[in-house]
């Protein structure tokens, strides 16, 4: 692999090949906030799946909501909130999407009859969301 095509007149030494810029990623240390953020996101998706399992009759709508609710939430998060989202969204749009997804996960627990779990989830998700936004905009 060469960096650039060489003309027949340019008889200088060919530089060694380099890695493309897209394959090089700066390595960031994994912090406790990042781990908490991943746990909160996974718990939110599992909460929506659990809600779909318990709140709807099993054969037809139960499976649809058990798979569809977390899948819809993951796709919305990827499109509008993720660091590699294909749609460029400003800070306000990211906050709106994040709040809607957190409230959906908390509301799933409230509708199942566990309001304390829903409230704790919303508080922890809000805390990790605020820290994540502060780190992104710093």
From TrEMBL:
InterPro entries: DUF2568. Residues 1-26 are annotated as: Disordered. It comes from the Bacteria. The chain crosses the membrane at residues 34-54, 60-79, 91-110, 116-133. Keywords: Membrane, Transmembrane, Transmembrane helix. This is YrdB family protein. It comes from Curtobacterium citreum. The lineage of its organism: Bacteria, Bacillati, Actinomycetota, Actinomycetes, Micrococcales.
